[in-house]
Amino acid sequence: MAERDFTYASFQQYLTENQLMGAACGCSAAAQWPPRPICPECAAPPSEWADLGQTGELAGFSVIYVGTTAMINAGFDRNKPYCVGIVKLDSGPSVSAFIHGVDVQNPETIKIGSKVVADFAELGPEGAKKTVLAFRVV
């Protein structure tokens, strides 16, 4: 794996490659997400990128009916809500992401503890799409 700086641009590039990466420091075995240029435990720069894997468990969620301007521009509204959630990765960290494969019209059917797998999504207008982290219930 090529060396990349610990920047948002590098993190975004990994997302476009369908990889969920965190920052690892020599002081701890735990990878940090989101990746940071300084370790929150020892204040040293991270030593390497760490693959966080692509599986986990849904720890919490919310169905959004009135989104931000960016989400409205992406086609979501009161008639087309979307789900976001917190996923506890099997590798340890918790991440926030879109949750696919759930019935947003019937949120009572969405179950905490459901197993999920990474399902990267592209949002935005044609020619300016951005890859975002998403998970799909399996």
In short:
Helix content is 10%, strand content 34%. The protein is mainly beta and 138 residues long.
Description of the molecule:
The model has no long low-confidence stretch (mean pLDDT 90). The chain has two domains: 8-51, no CATH class; 55-137, OB fold (Dihydrolipoamide Acetyltransferase, E2P) (Beta Barrel), CATH 2.40.50. It has helices at 8-16, 69-73; strands at 21-24, 48-51, 55-64, 82-89, 94-100, 115-118, 121-123, 130-132, 134-137. The two termini are 29 Å apart. 10% of the residues lie in helices and 34% in strands. Strands 3-4-5-9-6 form a five-stranded mixed β-barrel. The chain has a two-stranded antiparallel ribbon with strand order 1-2. The chain has a two-stranded antiparallel ribbon with strand order 7-8. The chain is globular and about 45 Å long. It is built from two helices and nine strands; from the N terminus they run H-E-E-E-H-E-E-E-E-E-E. With 138 residues, it is mainly beta.
Which CATH top level class of the largest domain fits?
Answer: Mainly Beta
What Rg, in angstroms, do the CA atoms define?
Answer: 16 Å
Reading side by side through the largest sheet, how are the strands ordered?
3-4-5-9-6
Known CATH architecture of the largest domain: Beta Barrel
- Helix content estimate: 10-25%
Number of domain modules: 2
Q: Count up the helices.
A: 2
At CATH level 3, the topology of the largest domain is OB fold (Dihydrolipoamide Acetyltransferase, E2P)
- Shape from CA axes? globular
Detail the poorly predicted runs.
none
Distance between the termini: 29 Å
Secondary-structure element series: HEEEHEEEEEE
The largest sheet, given as strand count, sense and whether it forms a barrel, is: 5 strands, mixed, barrel
Count of strand segments: 9
Q: Roughly what fraction of the amino acids lie in strands?
A: 25-35%
Which structural class should the secondary elements be placed in?
mainly beta
Q: What is the overall pLDDT average?
A: 90
